[in-house]
Design brief:
Length: about 325
């Protein structure tokens, strides 16, 4: 069943696999695209350590994915706050365009120059605010966005500091713009997809659920830990970061509760999601997953998962 999102993306289903730092690669991205969604490279896709050259790995990953699928593939451009240097996103954009990428997930406050360059290249721009508001969504449309992602506090990854949940964020953003909106944050099964559509979304943007799929590069022990955990195991370790419980994260959660405002920075110093989620060092770093993780109890193939999530669109 086609709708405005599938027409814009050139996909069978209105589903985007969300970027996840360190945890995407050519295999996952191509599997999503081959199963009818839009596979999206996140930061550090396919990279194993900071010692490796990030740009070279990125180019290699794009070429590998293009060998595995003929369908559309997206690249993430993570923007810094307005007024700060955007040269890294600029470089990722230029190199991705040169390799034929025509879909960009642009995260952060809208930047006039980057938006203009994506649109000038004839590419599709999917805009995702880190703290979505109707005003920012309207600005994204003004600057040429083709699709808007409305993300609620339920999500995995860096969470919106305003604390508004997916259930209230999606209709608010859908009412503010006339272009299609995709819902993000806590969508782990078909009930989440149906709820998103009922709230006015025309597609879904799914991250955490893909962490536990056969093709995901998440460490096997971390997949097991996610499947064995529930929302009660999540700790708020910073205003914009949750993690599954481990010794180090309990310390950070306590420091945060006692008024320490540097705990987000501390999660970054520990390596972010890389040690625990990619390398399986469960006691060392953060394990970031959405608040609906009780629903993540199996490790399907990407095709099985997408088939199930998209059962109303067959
Ligand atoms: C482990 C993990 C890492 C993430 N890393 C990034 C990132 O680097 N950049 C980004 O824009 N979003 C990142 N996200 C957020 C996702 O792109 C997406 O917004 C989110 O996963 C959607 O909500 P869900 O997890 O409930 O499906 C990350 C999410 C997770 C779970």
């Amino acid at each position: 069943m086609q709708n405005r999102v599938t027409e814009i993306l050139g996909t069978r289903y209105p589903l985007i696999q969300a970027p996840m730092n360190w945890l995407t690669d050519a295999r996952l991205v191509a599997a999503v695209t081959n199963a009818g969604g839009l596979g999206t490279f996140g930061p550090n896709a396919g990279r194993d350590s900071l010692a490796q050259n990030g740009m070279e790995i990125m180019e290699h990953q794009i070429k590998m994915a293009q060998k595995l699928t003929n369908g559309p593939i997206a690249m993430t451009l993570g923007l810094n706050p307005q007024g700060e240097d955007q040269s890294y996103a600029q470089q990722v954009l230029e190199r991705s365009l040169a390799l034929g990428i025509r879909y960009f997930l642009v995260g952060g406050e809208p930047d006039e120059t980057i938006y203009h360059e994506v649109k000038e290249a004839g590419a599709t721009l999917i805009a995702r605010s880190y703290n979505p508001t109707p005003a920012e969504a309207q600005r994204q449309v003004e600057l040429g966005a083709d699709l808007i992602v409305a993300t609620g506090y339920d999500e995995g990854g860096v969470i919106p500091t305003h604390g508004n949940g997916t259930f209230t964020t999606v209709p608010r953003i859908a009412d503010a713009v006339s272009i299609p909106v995709l819902a993000a944050g806590g969508i782990n099964d078909v009930r989440g997809v149906r709820a998103a559509m009922a709230l006015g979304a025309e597609g879904v943007f799914v991250g955490s659920r893909f962490l536990v799929t056969q093709e995901a590069r998440t460490a096997p022990v971390t997949k097991q830990k996610i499947m064995a955990s529930t929302a009660e195991d999540l700790l708020l370790v910073a205003p914009n970061q949750r993690s599954l419980r481990n010794r180090r994260m309990e310390e950070l959660a306590n420091q945060f509760r006692d008024g320490d405002h540097t705990t987000f920075h501390k999660t970054r110093e520990l390596g972010g999601v890389r040690p625990a989620m990619l390398q399986g060092e469960l006691e060392v770093g953060e394990i970031s997953v959405n608040t609906g993780l009780d629903l993540i109890q199996t490790e399907p193939t990407v095709a099985e998962l997408i088939n199930d999530l998209m059962q109303d669109f067959h």
